[in-house]
Design brief:
heterodimer, A: 545 residues, alpha+beta, TATA-Binding Protein, five-stranded antiparallel β-sheet, 28% helix, B: 190 residues, Glutaredoxin, 2 domains, four-stranded mixed β-sheet
Chain lengths: 545, 190
């Protein structure tokens, strides 16, 4: 194939469907847009040559041609959809429940889901969303997006730039809106021109051939939109690098000092205290609303924290801590240090920090013979009381429950329901009495204890949930989304309208095209030809059906 | 325009198009490779078989063992079974007796290091007493080693060969047979 010279004199690139200048259908290429079977012309991409459909030479051209096909793009999206759905049939590896007998995926999937689970695992679907092929699929969608856009934008831009006001009569006849008038008054065309200009059309006149155009800007909407999508995809790629994005969560109890996860042991955090403050129910402004709500309404969640920087080489070895930040972390008031941002994200109030116990004589008057306090985060092995009693901590269950075999055990690592087995040595005695004591439980193991224990007092402590985050990618997502939105608006709220007038011997041919809102362009024409002898256009599509 | 001129023009245009397309494809290919490599590297943050086990140093709290501190790098030359556990964790309790049973047999060749993630030392002592454990038990009170090894749910066990390379990572409890099998794999070559 060679370049095609149209009868208007314009030389079109191979693969052109409608002459770029005059719009005359180019013989031999009409099958590309299906014009050979229809009365109306398909105005897609102005009938310009999408080269990918015609060139197939070097590998580069072939690759380019492959990705420039919208069909390929749609298939890639369908495949990605199917893959995404497949991955959600069984839980992904990171969601294997902690209480599974074995969390090894090689065992877990088969054990719980049988043969299907085994196949799921062997196909690697347990890590589908981070598998190389899923990533590749998403990446290929991005590639398709870029190439499709370039391959359509460039010829469309050229075609719109090269278009002439003088159009071939076939082109006009085969537009959806068309009329032909046998004879018109001398100044009818000037009247129409003036009126179109008033309606903010850009009017071009070439030897009496008129092209009125407005809103071409709207045609770039989809491409602007794609640029936004590509920026969002790039931001997603950046998000995979730990330098740009990090998201961790830490539970820290009041008084605790822990390493901040994700900082590779470089930073430590200490929780001095956690505050949960409520609105005053007697408040003049909010009092009524609080009463209606029927419960307390929190006004503040706050962690008073200290951040330390650690200076040591080996993980775990007593770190040299240097205080770098001391601050109040409140909801919506993050604390920033180094590259990291901390957010107040959660709290738990159901833990005990210490408990004190009374020793009471069973048959006595209930007067305490001694009191001792146990620090639940670091209990002593034994407590000596002034009254001569000695209490040994035989067992400590921070979160007491009875396991399946009926043995006392701890359900978690945290003192939410402390239970103790105490050995009580009365003064000057070597034989101990065994007591079990917990919240709502006080058991005399042998049944003949002379002294019993009771909880005298306790303090609670709060655990604060803190999100640790580094996120440099948000501005990119914002930018991408904004550009995406601009593209949508551009394509949605503007319409590209074109009206052609081609003088004939005595009369005129009138045709119009728009990418949307055909009613609108008809209104524009009505206004423009009002009072002239020019016939109103007819919608040939409706006639077609 | 003469025919020759036009031909030359066309050739030039074709050449430019090829350069443009090659450039765009090269940039896209670069971005795709960057994304894939990055994705793989992210997995590398978690230590797995074949990686060098990162060094740590913790206080050893078991009174049945003479060591005061445990530093992983000092155990080179011996195989190391590095176990992360807690007294509240049921599957951890299940595998402890197996570890204790095999410890004397492999003691000279393999060190069993069971890092406790408990909050309080007392519960560890009581646990050691009731299970009669003799292997070293370091206490990771600040969670730093837990964070270093990216430990999620426990038990998690790393089998490390005498050169300090991780041979196997086991998530979840071990049976006596599988434990012995893994220990065989990390014995120093004699």
């Amino acid at each position: 194939m060679n370049k095609i010279k149209c009868e208007c004199g314009h030389v079109n690139p191979e693969g052109t469907v409608l002459c770029e200048a005059c719009g005359k259908p180019i013989e031999g290429n009409q099958h590309i847009d299906g014009n050979d079977e229809k009365k109306l012309l398909n105005m897609r991409y102005e009938g310009s040559a999408r080269r990918s459909q015609t060139y197939n030479k070097s590998i580069i051209d072939k690759t380019w041609g492959f990705f420039s096909s919208v069909k390929v793009g749609v298939w890639l999206i369908v495949l990605a959809l199917i893959a995404s759905a497949l991955g959600s049939i069984l839980p992904q590896e990171m969601y294997i429940p902690a209480d599974a007998p074995s969390r090894d995926p090689a065992i877990f999937y088969e054990e719980r889901y049988g043969v299907f689970g085994l196949i799921f695992y062997q196909l690697g679907f347990h890590n589908l969303y981070s598998s190389w092929w899923y990533m590749l699929l998403i990446a290929l969608i991005g590639v398709s997006l870029v190439i499709c856009s370039i391959d359509r934008f460039v010829p469309l831009y050229k075609a719109l730039k090269k278009q002439k006001a003088k159009r071939h009569s076939t082109f006009l006849r085969r537009q959806r809106l068309f009329s032909e008038t046998e004879s018109i008054n001398e100044n009818d065309l000037d009247t129409v021109k003036e009126r179109l200009k008033k309606q903010r059309y850009k009017v071009r006149d070439e030897d009496g051939h008129i092209l009125a155009e407005k809103g071409r800007f709207s045609r770039w909407g989809p491409y602007v939109n794609h640029i936004g999508l590509i920026i969002i995809l790039l931001a997603a790629i950046l998000r995979m690098t730990p330098i740009m994005y990090l998201d961790e969560y830490i539970w820290i109890r009041e008084g605790e000092q822990l390493v901040i996860p994700g900082t590779e042991g470089q930073f430590y955090i200490e929780n001095e205290q956690f505050l949960l403050e409520n609105h005053d129910p007697n408040d003049e402004v909010f009092g009524e609303a609080i009463e209606m709500e029927g419960e307390m309404i929190a006004s503040n969640y706050q962690t008073d924290l200290i951040i330390y920087e650690a200076k040591n080489d080996v993980a775990g070895a007593d770190p040299d801590l240097e205080k770098i930040v001391e601050d109040e972390l409140r909801m919506n008031h993050p604390v920033k240090f180094d590259r990291y941002t901390l957010y107040q994200s959660g709290y738990q109030l159901n833990e005990f920090s210490n408990m004190s116990f009374d020793i009471v004589e069973e048959d006595g008057d209930g007067e305490a013979l001694g009191t001792f306090t146990v620090d639940l985060s670091s209990p002593e092995t034994s407590y000596e009381l002034d009254s001569g009693f000695q209490v040994e901590v035989s067992q400590y269950f921070p979160d007491f429950y009875m396991d399946e075999d009926g043995n006392p055990a701890s359900e978690t690592n945290f003192p939410r329901n402390p239970g103790f087995v105490f050995l009580v040595y009365p003064p000057e005695s070597d034989t101990a009495e065994v007591s079990f004591i917990g919240i709502g439980r006080n058991i005399d193991a042998t049944g003949d204890n002379n002294y019993s224990l009771s909880i005298n007092d306790f303090d609670m402590r709060a655990a604060s949930g803190i999100t640790v985050r580094v996120d440099y990618t948000l501005p990119f997502f914002g930018l991408g989304a904004a550009i995406f939105m601009i593209g949508v608006i551009q394509g949605m709220y503007w319409q590209h309208r074109r009206i052609w007038l081609r003088p004939t011997s005595d009369g005129v041919m009138l045709a119009a095209h728009t990418n949307k809102n055909w009613h609108g362009v008809q209104k524009d024409i009505e206004k423009a030809i009002d009072g002239t002898k020019i016939n109103m256009v007819e919608d040939q599509q409706e006639l077609d059906e | 325009m003469s025919l020759d001129e036009r031909k030359r023009n066309k050739k030039n245009k074709k050449k430019n198009r090829l350069i443009f397309r090659s450039a765009v494809l090269a940039i896209l290919l670069g971005a795709v490779i960057f994304a894939l490599v990055n994705n793989l590297q992210q997995d590398n943050n978690i230590y797995r078989a074949g990686d060098q086990a990162p060094d740590f140093k913790l206080e050893q709290v078991s009174e049945n063992n003479d060591l005061e501190t445990i530093q992983l790098s000092e155990l080179q030359g011996k195989g190391v079974m590095l176990n992360f556990w807690g007294t509240w964790c049921e599957p951890c309790k299940d595998e402890m007796p197996y570890m204790e049973e095999l410890y004397p047999k492999y003691k000279d060749e393999i060190e069993i290091v069971a890092v406790s993630l408990d909050a309080t030392e007392l519960v560890i002592h009581r646990f050691i007493d009731s299970y009669g454990l003799s292997f070293p038990i370091p206490h990771d009170a600040t969670g730093e080693v837990k964070d270093l090894y990216k430990i999620g749910p426990i038990p998690s066990t790393f089998f490390i060969d005498p050169e300090g390379e991780i041979v196997e990572v086991v998530e979840g409890a071990l049976s006596l047979e599988s434990l012995e099998g893994h220990l065989q794999e990390i014995r120093p070559a004699s």
